[in-house]
Design goal:
- The complex is a heterodimer of chains A (248) and B (426).
- With 248 residues, chain A is of the alpha/beta class.
- Chain A has helices at residues 35-43, 58-64, 72-83, 123-132, 137-146, 158-170, 175-197, 213-223, 236-247; strands spanning 2-8, 12-19, 22-30, 50-54, 68-69, 89-93, 98-103, 109-114, 203-206, 227-228.
- Chain A has 9 helices and 10 strands.
- The radius of gyration of chain A is 18 Å and the shape is globular.
- Helix content of chain B is 54%, strand content 10%.
- In chain B, helix 11 packs antiparallel against helix 12, helix 11 (200-223) packs parallel to helix 13 (248-268) and helix 14 packs across helix 18.
- In chain B, strands 2-1-3-4 form a 4-stranded parallel β-sheet, with helices on both faces. A 4-stranded parallel β-sheet of chain B has the order 6-5-7-8, with helices on both faces.
- Classes of the chains: A alpha/beta (248), B alpha/beta (426).
- Chain A binds chain B through residues 56, 70-74, 97, 108-112, 114, 116-117, and chain B through 392, 397-398, 402, 408-409, 411-412, 415-416, 418-419, 422-423, 426.
């Protein structure tokens, strides 16, 4: 059986195809204002028996492609547990959402928390902040990692934080210190969200933001726990979808 | 008929254009949300009719009552004793506060971080779209939370006939004395407004009328213990919402008729949804008409709501008033005892609200509890933590939702509710 999972995220669309319990295809593409076109491009030429979809655009996807829908929370839980069988806590920071999920010993979803309607502390927040500092996301992470000190940022709202940063830069603050301050504020928000569901090891950190090494380190030090990150943390929910498709 | 209503609305000083927009929006939402539900009981037809005439026939009835020399008294809270209003032959109407309206006007008089419920009361008044508030001879406010208490100072500019009842914050002997003297003063105010004396016989009859209404609502609540549930949470909420402004005797008769039908359903094991649907109790802030946001999300995610621990729900109907008083004074004392049971989060401490939520979660075989708060409603937000912790200790899964009346977060809330339902399905 060959099954597909697609995660139609706000910033990136991810596709995973699993054949007989083995991951065969793992691919992603930046999302656009036409998410369906992006999905079709990603699926082009692929053969599969059924597809399970999740993510921000899952309903739109199911309107034109026959698919079963699951929430990002379930998808992350199934995918995370597959990669880390001992996983009990998942932190997922994507383009627009932050989620903390606790799993019971059997891997079922227990308590979970999500950020409210604003995108504070998410991937989009980091992108806007990197732009305000005139660097790419990778450059931003390096800059923050290399800083000796951090300048604390008081706003977590994307709009307010951007103007705060513009103000700091214009007063001549070091870019690296400001970047480190931003990382600090994202980590602080994520830490309090995870603590709400309880930090039980092992903790797995997924989503696009988990690509940032400096943020992984900051989270590990704040939580006082080992933070495990899969080889491609963006693909976990799509993998979870494909695994659900295999079971359906 | 429509022309007749238009001249009635014009006579009440409504902004006809804005009012048309409101009615058309309400009509669309109503048919999408309520009329499209599967397996609705026949008895819902009465409530559909009442809703379709919410600004028509019911307003006509209020104006007819006024023409007969009766007064119309509006209120915003379950602490306002309807029995006293009915006992002086006045009509009692709950004023709805469940939608954003005229927000640009409201923002000129209220701080932005005021809860949506308070803003809505102002929006309907300032936007001139509520025929109920315009038909009132007196509007009664009450000092519950700080937001409402201070908002009434401002609302008085727009509603000169505003009367405010003070409320205790602690259920002590002194608190009870305060409520008693406030209810006595309210009774005198009603006598003054109507020119009628509050008589023991009339008050006893009013207590019986309101008891009968609450007993019918309790009967409905008890029928929701059945698995599968015989009625949707949306329809049950609608009935609670209508109980605040409909004619009480007619409402009670219609609800009892519906309950007869539901009893047959329960006997036959028929449900509104399959028995496999996860069962959810909602606890928290009131959902006034037309605030159906969360129940719509929950029931379209494949769960069924089997109880509302809420002022628009069981918090206002759990207690009846003993019909044992002989004098007006006795009866006011019994009303004070009855109303002081209400476990609104403005009281400190407030343990019974938490206990009751645990009880209904257990007895209604709820698979989970959703704690619902309106943003900036500090008393209920403050109680969230203790509520969730105690439910989780009972191994009842919980979900916390803090939102307002806007639609901008329905996607995110939908995802959370769906994930919660996935969790309840196991």
């Amino acid at each position: 059986m060959r099954v597909a999972g697609i995660d139609v995220g706000s910033r990136t669309v991810k596709l995973a195809i699993v054949e007989d319990g083995r991951l065969d295809v793992s691919r992603k593409k930046e999302n656009s204002f036409q998410p369906l076109t992006v999905c079709r491009e990603l699926l082009a030429g692929e053969r599969y028996d059924c597809v399970v979809a999740t993510g921000y655009g899952r309903r739109l996807f199911a309107e034109s492609i026959d698919a079963t829908l699951i929430t990002e929370i379930k998808a992350a839980a199934v995918g995370g547990r597959f990669l880390y069988p001992a996983c009990r806590t998942i932190l997922d920071i994507g383009g627009q959402d932050t989620k903390a999920i606790s799993l019971d010993p059997e891997g079922r979803v227990g308590r979970f928390e999500m950020n409210d309607k604003c995108a504070a502390g998410t991937g989009r927040f980091l992108e806007v902040m990197a732009m305000a500092l005139g660097c790419s996301l990778e450059g931003f992470s390096e800059l923050a990692g290399a800083a000796a000190r951090r300048h604390s940022i008081s706003s977590t709202c994307t709009v307010f934080a951007e103007s705060e940063i513009v103000g700091l830069i214009s007063r001549g603050r070091d870019r690296g210190e400001v970047a480190a301050g931003i990382v600090d504020s994202v980590a602080s928000r994520a830490t309090s969200l995870v603590r709400r569901v309880g930090v039980v090891p092992s903790l797995v950190f997924i989503g696009g933001v988990a690509l940032s090494q400096v943020l992984r380190d900051e989270l590990a030090s704040r939580l006082g726990a080992t933070v495990q990150v899969p080889e491609d943390p963006q693909m976990v929910a799509a993998l979870g979808c494909a695994l659900c498709a295999a079971h359906s | 008929m429509s022309d007749e209503y238009r001249s009635m609305w014009k006579g009440l000083g409504l902004d006809l254009e804005a009012h048309d927009a409101l009615l058309s929006m309400l009509g669309n939402v109503y048919s999408k949300v309520f009329l499209s539900q599967p397996n609705r009981p026949e008895g819902m037809k009465y409530f559909d009719f009442v809703m379709s005439e919410v600004h028509g026939l019911r307003i006509r009835e209020l104006l007819d009552a006024k023409a007969e020399g009766r007064k119309v008294v509006g209120s915003y809270c379950t602490f306002v004793p309807e029995e006293l209003i009915l006992a002086v032959d006045a009509v009692s109407v709950g004023l709805c506060t469940g939608a954003d309206f005229a927000t640009e006007l409201v923002d000129q008089v209220l701080p932005r971080n005021t809860c949506a419920l308070i803003k809505s009361a102002f929006g309907f008044k300032l936007g001139k779209v509520c025929p109920y508030v315009e038909a009132c001879d007196m509007v009664v406010g009450e000092n519950t939370c700080d937001g409402k208490k201070k908002a009434y100072e401002i609302l008085r500019q727009f509603i000169p006939d505003l009367y405010v009842i003070d409320l205790p914050q602690v259920k002590s002997e002194a608190g009870k004395q305060l409520l008693r003297s406030e209810y006595q003063a309210f009774a005198r105010k009603l006598e003054e407004l109507t020119g009628r004396k509050l008589e023991a016989g009339k008050l006893a009859a009013a207590i019986a009328t309101v008891n009968a209404k609450r007993a019918a609502l309790k009967r409905l609540a008890a029928l929701r213990y059945a698995k599968p549930a015989p009625i949707s949470g949306l329809d049950s909420l609608l009935i609670s919402q209508i109980s605040f402004y409909d004619n009480p005797a007619r409402f009670t008769a219609s609800l009892n008729q519906l309950c007869d039908e539901l009893e047959v359903r329960v006997r036959e094991g028929k449900g509104v949804f399959p028995a496999s649907h996860p069962r959810v109790v909602i606890s928290g802030c009131p959902m006034a008409v037309p605030n159906w946001k969360i129940p719509v999300i929950v029931e379209s995610a494949g769960a069924v709501i089997v109880g509302e621990e809420s002022c628009v729900g069981e918090r206002s109907t759990r207690w009846l008033t003993p019909e044992t008083g002989h004098t007006v004074d006795d009866m006011i004392g019994l009303l004070v005892d009855r109303y002081l049971n209400i476990d609104c989060a403005v009281f400190t401490p407030n343990p019974t609200r938490l206990e009751y939520t645990r009880e209904i979660a257990r007895e209604r075989k709820a698979d989970g509890v959703i704690h619902y708060t309106i943003q900036f409603c500090q008393p209920y937000q403050m109680e969230t933590g203790a509520m969730l912790a105690s439910l989780e200790k009972d191994s009842v899964p919980t979900l916390r939702i803090d939102t307002d009346y806007s639609q901008e977060d329905v996607g995110q809330i939908g995802t959370r509710v769906e994930a919660f339902v996935e969790r309840l399905r196991g």
